[in-house]
Design the sequence.
């Protein structure tokens, strides 16, 4: 599958955010650890988009949006972060995720490394990033969630790294 990445058109922002929330919600519904809705609050998406180095991209197949991503680009170090990535609910199982990641790497060929994280319960994501995209798990940590207090509270997250420059130190 061939995808085109295009900067997010501001008039598509609401649909982009809604599709992202729907895609993230699928993982939670499939998880044995049910969570409250919404999994990804709109304010979190908006905060990610407001990051000073954010680049929001729509993934288009034959002119139709099938997913998207928000990347944090570091022009100095070339060590970038994939803050959010989603495949539209009705596009799952068609190779869109793999094509989307390949399109990102083609768009940023000078990247030295990519970082991202995903919840520990998201087996499908973990498999995707490890087996399809070539990432490595480099950390397991507890993300503190708003409104939770005390040690041991929060969501367990895996941190992933894909080095493209050959350095692993």
Sequence:
């Amino acid at each position: 599958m061939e995808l085109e990445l295009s900067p997010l058109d501001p008039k598509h922002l609401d649909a982009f955010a809604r599709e992202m929330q729907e895609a993230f919600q699928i993982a939670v519904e499939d998880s044995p650890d049910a969570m409250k809705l919404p999994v990804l609050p709109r304010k979190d998406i908006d905060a990610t988009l407001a990051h000073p180095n954010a680049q929001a991209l729509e993934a288009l197949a034959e002119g139709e949006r099938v997913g998207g991503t928000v990347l944090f680009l570091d022009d100095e170090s070339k060590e970038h972060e994939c803050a959010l990535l989603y495949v539209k609910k009705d596009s799952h199982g068609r190779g869109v995720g793999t094509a989307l990641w390949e399109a990102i790497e083609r768009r940023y060929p000078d990247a030295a490394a990519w970082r991202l994280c995903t919840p520990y319960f998201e087996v499908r994501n973990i498999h995707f990033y490890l087996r399809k995209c070539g990432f490595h798990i480099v950390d397991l940590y507890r993300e503190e969630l708003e409104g939770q207090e005390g040690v041991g509270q929060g969501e367990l997250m895996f941190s992933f790294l894909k080095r493209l420059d050959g350095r692993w130190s």
